[in-house]
Amino acid sequence: MTVPGRRSSTFSRLLRHGFTDPSGAERLLDLPELAALRGDPVLLDALGATADPDLALRGLVRLVEAQPETERQTLTTTLLSAKPFRDRLLGVLGASEALADHLARHPGDWATLVTYEAADLHPGITEFERGLAEATDPVSLRVAYRRCLLGIAARDVCGTTDVAQTAAELADLATATLRAALALARAAAPADAAQCRLAVIAMGKCGGHELNYVSDVDVIFVGEPVEGADEAKAIQAATRLASHLMRICSETTVEGTIWPVDANLRPEGRNGPLVRTLSSHLAYYQRWAKTWEFQALLKARPVAGDPELGVAYVDAVSPLVWQAAERENFVTDVQAMRRRVVDNIPVAQVDRELKLGPGGLRDVEFAVQLLQLVHGRSDATLHSGSTLDALAALAAGGYVGRADAAQLDEAYRFLRAMEHRIQLYRLRRTHLVPEGEDDLRRLGRSLGLRTDPVAALNKEWKRHASVVRRLHEKIFYRPLLDAVAQLAPGEIRLSPKAAGQRLEALGYADPAAALRHLEALASGVSRKAAIQRHLLPVLLGWFADSADPDAGLLGFRRVSDALGKTPWYLRLLRDEGAAAENLARVLSAGRLAPDLLLRAPEAVAILGDPGGLRPRGRDHLEQEVLAAVGRADDAEQAVAAARGVRRRELFRTAAADLIDSYGTEDSPRTSDPGALVDRVGEAVTDLNAATIAGALRAAVRAEWGDELPTRFTVIGMGRFGGHELGYGSDADVLFVYEPREGVDEQEAARVANRVVTEMRRLLQLPTTDPPLLIDADLRPEGRSGPMVRTLASYAAYYRRWSLVWESQALLRAAPMAGDADLGQRFIELVDPLRYPAEGLGEDAAREIRRLKARMESERLPRGADPTLHAKLGRGGLSDVEWTVQLLQMRHGWSEPGLRTTRTRTALSAAHAAGLIPTEEAQTLDEAWVLATRVRNAVMLVRGRPGDTFPSDPRELAAVGRYLGYGPGHVGEMVDDYRRITRRARAVVDDLFYGA
Q: Which residue of 161, 166, 632, 953 pairs with 637 in a disulfide if CB–CB is 3.0 to 4.6 A?
């Protein structure tokens, strides 16, 4: 008797044996049905060894209760006397609620777990076919299937089979089930069966002999007419048989379902015919198939139906699979497939996703399959459908490092074991790790983690996922380094041919040169070589993720050659995680940023500074430039220093733009392209203004000391004044002077002209830094007029001779350097011209439209596609800017928000004032931002300015990546550009031309 307030000894024993509800377990053990078992200590030990003792006990009670009176003693006696049976039965009951339900419904099926002979330990297709032989309809087939599944689960949870053997048994059971289902379908339609030959080809995990407990069984159906039969009628008959087979396996009955049969991997997917002839399959694969379809065919295996036809199918498609790496679009397809598809996983589930999440099963499977495709064309030992077998073959052949392969094998087995046990519990198709404490505890215990199973499970899971994340990319690249480096004894190196094949498959256009670069970077015993050997596998992956991997690798070699002996550089790459990825993105995205960096490689430090990519403001830059000018010995040195600052800031701006446009592993790409355009325009404008201020100070100081005999200012015009400069833009300016008191006007004019000439000379001196071109063609009288005028001269000209286009050009006028007071007075002078009182007259508006139409017909370069020219083409920059400027000149006098030099700000103000509807304002803004980004992209990619998309495929792909289009989507990019600018042109026709 238990003393009140004290726990019984049974209660304590139950706790020690892992029960979480010992009180409930005590009540169950006291049931009369368990009287024969209650006093035996062996039972508690066996229950305590299960994944969930409470679940096992509940399942046992249900099973005993379900036994006929005559069988109950047989069950309990066998349970106590036969340890292998006891471990099997209780192990299944403690791991699978669904199989406990099956045993309760079919209480005699426990007897299938009693047999413990050698043949029973590792059954194959023949044994499973025998187990399903008595099934005569879909319901009895399900019962027989679950009975066979009991044995597989028992061997799994008891450790008789490992995860790979369990997966193979599940695939063999699926094979036997498909054969039984086809037999039922043929028996139901003997006329159809007589007309055709039908082969069932297993794909996916079933084809690869690595099936889950609950998974779609992927298949492809191949049909042929029997001799003398009509082909069309035979294929119709085969289609009916295939459809019936799918229903037999997939439909829900009183015994539930088996698993869905999925035929969507067939040619044309669900849009294609369910059954095709062998010749039809081959015609499709030879002409239309995509790379992922050949990847899927890696696992093709005939499993049911006509065996000769199945073998003929696999023999016919196999050569195509191993030639896939030679296809023209293989690299693009691989790049697209390598980009993780996690967008469809709900955010809350990403961290619980065992298959598709970061470091999940798909990472291992994809990496192995890709390496099989690349190297299997010349090495038949890699022709395996099993992930683990293929991984072992890759390691044996030197295609993957042995240590890396061993770690991946261990991680993959652990993750698959987790997946198996999660699905086994309720026999539901899921890849999500459960969240409940009880579920995690059962899962951890089922994997042998008995001390604090929840914490141990999470720790092991995260460790293995981390290994997969780290190695998933590394296994592509580590053997490439081993191919050019000294190996440890016993290791096998990739042959130069195999290394070249892999580099080619990963997007490198010149594999031989890439191998030379790798050898130069990774060979030797120096600290530099050791750090680079550690970094290169990751860097090579980032390079391969770009449009020009060769350029990225070459750039890295050149930067490392320049800085490799600098301690801070090696520290930066080793310790600053973001720095290495940022450097890889910048080096492989085009020519401009690497060219700027290689002129002064020390600027790479910007990439490791958390705030290094933020643009410096105008005041900061001007202060730095003027200080540098002040320290220089002469004007040439002074402007060289100013241009050096400009080069560094151009690199900072370009690097930030590229990194935000591409995104990194820790930071997604910026979703607001307008913000990027504004940031680039502001940054380039500021650094050009500071450079001009430096050139002005250098020119003045060299000849006149600290003060000129005349006031002098530089007015920005065009994109310069609008703070909208791109990487390749000239600086449009006007020069204004005003003699100081007591200075002769002619002397002042001579000085002002001399200053302008000297500034232009200094800014265009041939150096390693990019020149800053100053364009003063927007001055009064254009190229025929004087380069510099007094404020009074500008006033006289504008009062008497000014044309409407000059007033329009002055909309962008803003002081940029020199005498601030003089600059402000110039702005006050031109304000009445650009924002005329009562608005622009109709005659002047008509003249602006006439000029625009003439420009469209005369200035577009010959042969240029007007739908793709970013500046002068349909719906491009010119269209949007002239439309906005017409609104400014008409309404700027009454709407203060329109008095701005910035296009987007003016457009926003026009919308706020009700001058342009919301949708039309958004259309114009989208087109202007896109056209600006295209021009910026062309300059970043090619290193020289351009107004239209490049014709070179690799350059075009790089522009696409900058604009957010993945590999293989450049056609979509061009179509989107045409669509967006076509809509903008419709708005321009309405608002500007009044159509």
A: 632
* Contacts (Cβ under 8 Å, ≥6 apart) of 937: 590, 958, 959, 962, 963
Res. 492 pLDDT band, cuts 50 70 90: low
Q: Token pair of 855, please?
A: 């420009």
Report the distance separating Cα 274 and Cα 518, nearest Å.
Answer: 49
Q: What is the β-pairing status of strands 275-276 and 217-225?
A: parallel
Q: Are 92 and 150 in contact (CB under 8 A)?
A: yes
**pLDDT at residue 474 above 80?**
no
Q: How far is residue 223 from each of residues 238, 267, 274, 276, measured CA to CA in Å?
A: 6, 14, 10, 6
Task: Give whichever of 91-95, 359-363, 557-561 has the largest mean pLDDT.
Answer: 91-95
Q: How far is CA 512 from CA 494, 500, 535, in A?
A: 14, 7, 20
* 793/786 Cα distance (integer angstroms): 10
pLDDT computed for residue 118 by the predictor: 54
Tell me whether residue 420 is exposed, middle or buried, using C-beta atoms within 10 angstroms of its C-beta: 0 to 12, 13 to 18, 19 or more. buried
Do residues 856 and 850 touch, judged by C-beta distance below 8 A? no
What are the C-alpha distances in Å from 146 to residues 51, 90, 110, 173, 206? 20, 17, 11, 10, 18
Q: Are 880 and 910 in contact (CB under 8 A)?
A: no
What are the residue ranges of helices labelled H in 788-861? 791-800, 804-809, 820-834, 842-858
Q: Are 267 and 290 in contact (CB under 8 A)?
A: no
Q: Return the half-sphere exposure (C-beta side, CA atoms, 13 A cut-off) of residue 445.
A: 25
Torsion of CA 793, 797, 800, 806, to 10 degrees: -150
Structure confidence by residue, pLDDT tens digits, 606-629: 888 778 889 998 999 999 999 999
What value does the mean pLDDT take over residues 250-278?
A: 95
Structure tokens at 295: 């990847």
What is the Cα–Cα distance from 80 to 41, expressed in whole angstroms?
A: 10
Under a CB-based contact definition with an 8 Å cutoff, are residues 738 and 713 in contact? no
Q: How far apart are CA 638 and CA 619, in angstroms?
A: 18
Q: Is 239 in a helix, a strand, or coil?
A: helix
Crossing angle of helices 437-446 and 453-482, rounded to 10°: 60
Residues 750-783 as b/e (b if ≥16 CB within 10 A, e otherwise) read: ebbebbbebbbebbeeeeebbebebebebbbeee
Q: What is the pLDDT of residue 340?
A: 47
Tokens for 42, please give them. 């062996």
